[in-house]
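Hey,
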Amino acid sequence: MDRAFTNESAEKFRWKVLRGVDSNEKNIVGASVVHVAGGKLGALVRLEPNYESKMFRLTIRATDEAVPPVLLKYMVEQLSLGVEEEARHFEND
């Protein structure tokens, strides 16, 4: 897991990254409008990567309480790919 992978992961989910919002430049803060059958929902994300320990904290808020658990599940799956790939890389060295 590195900064490029983390940024790519946020972009894959079409988060509009809001630069300069967080005082820690490593953190990613973003906003999105989620289109669902009943209309549109607003969502905010804050991704706090810890590259040294290969961990991250992910917070998602939305105008509908059913949305964050779903987005969290898929984003954690995506971000975990970066951690797993790096672990395989070290095993092969």
